[in-house]
Design a protein that fits this description.
The structure is a homodimer.
Chain A lengths: L8 H19 L4 E2 L1 H8 L3 H8 L12 E2 H12 L5 E6 L3 H9 L7 E8 L8 E2 L2 E5 L3 H8 L3 E4 L3 H13 L4 E4 L13 E4 L2 H15 L5
Parallel strand pairs in A: 3-4, 3-7, 4-6, 7-8, 8-9
Antiparallel strand pairs in A: 1-2, 5-6
Helix pairs in contact in A: 1-4, 2-3
Chain A binds a DNA duplex through helix 3.
Pfam families (chains A, B): CoA_binding (PF02629), Put_DNA-bind_N (PF06971)
GO molecular function (chains A, B): DNA binding; DNA-binding transcription factor activity
GO cellular component, one term (chains A, B): cytoplasm
Amino acid sequence: MPKHEGVSLSVIKRLPRYYRFLGDLLSRDVTRISSRELASLMQLTASQIRQDLNCFGGFGQQGYGYNVAALHKEIGNIMGLNKHTPMVLIGAGNLGRTIARHMDFESSGFKLVGIFDDSPRVIGQKVSSLTVQDMAGLEAFCKEQSPRAAILCIPKEVAFETAQRLMKLGVNCFWNFSHYDLSLDFEGAVVENVHLGDSLMTLCYQINAAYPEDE
Amino acid sequence: MPKHEGVSLSVIKRLPRYYRFLGDLLSRDVTRISSRELASLMQLTASQIRQDLNCFGGFGQQGYGYNVAALHKEIGNIMGLNKHTPMVLIGAGNLGRTIARHMDFESSGFKLVGIFDDSPRVIGQKVSSLTVQDMAGLEAFCKEQSPRAAILCIPKEVAFETAQRLMKLGVNCFWNFSHYDLSLDFEGAVVENVHLGDSLMTLCYQINAAYPEDE
DNA sequence: TAGATTGTTAATCGATTAACAATC
DNA sequence: TAGATTGTTAATCGATTAACAATC
């Protein structure tokens, strides 16, 4: 693999979107595409696409463009989607169970290997081929299975301590749905925050900005 | 309200986070805070905070800083969280039902007034005080209740046509969870996309970037 | 070869940071 | 008044866009 060091966050955040669009083209049997065509499809500039891709390597061919299948695969490799990083879900409430059922972990570089909660109401329930386990058994489980990543679907009040407990067990990559900015406290952790509440408020702002009249 | 026109998207995206941090401070009975203190808390620069806030007005006081309660309320007003824009949920599968139950619409500027699906398996089910209705009744419902916004928890294949159908009914603000970039096709619509799959892939990338050794 | 389109360098634009005068 | 901290202007930095030589 070529060097990916120091690629800017804005480029990284665009990778999944490139991957999605290329996947779509692929399923519609498009074999080649130029940066100009892809740009018009994705509402970007051709320059930006070429700049972005060249952070990782020269995947195109002058006078031809890009091979859709090859580029799709390359971007998948760059993101590491072919891996299966073992991942646990902490918190099997409504949101946790839905995430477990809804996401395609296998094609996103992960494998969901365990689900934990501390409420007797959900412990023992089956969620997408896994059984919800008692949080008390987390240490033993991690010793055996060595998960590297965790999904946090827990209240913000316990997010910090839970993350700390997981870090001690060698789990330092977090997909954080709790209403809490995990990244701030954890030097050395890899954190992706999903703040659904923030997203809804952003929508609210934009509606008001677009239609200020109706007070 | 003062002028918000032309505020950059990066500033807007930070507003909910400011609101969250100020809410936290408020709940811990902090009455005043300087841009420097808030900056260290949020891991921003004091300059950025003052710049951001001054897009909307001068909420601080020289030599004193900002009143936490007042600023919290101001930002809430700027985002329009005190409104109750009527909103419908389209798609009452796992994800849709969870979103309906999980989000605090009332304190985010919305009111969930209807839930729709086309599958007999979920029509008639109760979800958080609402009953899932048949998509066939969408037109009649919109005529009566005039929702302005919709949550789309539907497969990407039907996202476009569903959004189009809603636009015809006067619903042109979308909180889109479908695996599809709605914004691209709809001039005049207000769209906030939530791409959970993209987020998971971004985490995958960052894990690989941080720990490239373990192939 | 001629045409097309990339990879890459240079120019522009916008967002972040620094500085400081205004003022509470 | 003196000290602190804002609001705001100027400087810097980074990301996007434009341009073009390289090359398939």
